[in-house]
Amino acid sequence: MMFPPFRGFVRVFVISCTAVFVLLLFSQSPSAPQGIYRAFVEFFGLFPERVLQGMLFQPITWVFLHGNFMHLLFNMFAFWMFGSLLESTFGTRRFVWFNLFCALFTAGCIILFGLLVDDLTFRIPTIGASGLVFGILIAVARLYPNQVVLFFFIIPMKLKYFAYILMAIEFYALYASNQKGISNIAHLGGALFGFLFVSWWNNRFTRGGPMGWIQAWRQQWIQRRRRKQLRIVYPEDKRHYHREVLV
Question: 200 and 162: one domain?
Fold first, then answer.
């Protein structure tokens, strides 16, 4: 197995999350004030009810917190393995912006899901970088679909199929896992952001950036309207025809 370089924003983020996790461990020690861990999680985690009350920093800080060692280990390992490839593709600066907007977008999905669908999601804090991991995974899968990864560290599989399988599992477990402390809506929200970002990224080179993308949509809309204004006018001998625009 080949490991990517551990540097750039990937290293900064992994070290930051690990440091926060150690701080959370100390807050759970017998010598720590009672209830400090819960207060810390509710203050810095994504608590939809409190976000709507004005704690607008939570849609950023929640990705640095993790509930246990395995939660931290799997997220940081995946962030390193896939994030390093995406950072080398985007560059460090754009990769940082990618993660920032992915955190905000995913937080918005969680809040909307809590408001409209699942009241439990609205009333409890969500923590972890899983949304970022899924956003990165989908972005890498779209940019490098034929890259081979080891499914369960054993089965060689193209990255696009690996991503499809994970998304199918997330949709299947959307409601059941939310009740067990796993925020599948965070995973799906991050995946959606990764998909949309790479769609913009691809069009950025072929259509001149965001404004070119908008201009392309506008041109397609105009062409669809013009098609409705076209009719075929046959000459008397019906051997030729031409198109005429109705005014």
Answer: yes
Which amino acid makes up residue 112? L
In the chain, % of residues over pLDDT 90: 26
Q: Which two tokens stand for residue 199?
A: 């769609």
Is the pLDDT at 95 greater than 80? The verdict is: yes
Q: Rg for the chain (alpha carbons), in Å?
A: 24
Q: Please give the Cα distance from 137 to 57 (Å, whole number).
A: 25
Containing structural domain, residue 80: 8-206
For the entire predicted model, the pTM comes to 0.76
Q: Is residue 88 in some structural domain?
A: yes
Model pLDDT for residues 190-219, shown as the tens digit of each residue: 899 998 988 887 766 545 444 555 566 666
8 Å CB contact between 145 and 160:
yes
pLDDT score of 121: 74
The answer to whether position 211 is within a domain reads no
The answer to whether residue 37 sits within a structural domain is yes
Contact 45, 128 (CB under 8 A): no
Q: Which amino acid is located at 120 in the chain?
A: L
Rounded to an integer, what distance in angstroms lies between the CA atom of residue 101 and that of residue 224? 33
Residues 226, 199 share a domain:
no
Angle formed by the axes of helices 184-206 and 92-116, to 10°? Answer: 130
DSSP-based three-state secondary structure for 232: strand
Query: Residue 190: which of 114, 99, 127 has the closest Cα?
Result: 99
Residue in 138, 17, 162 with CA at minimum distance from that of residue 86: 138
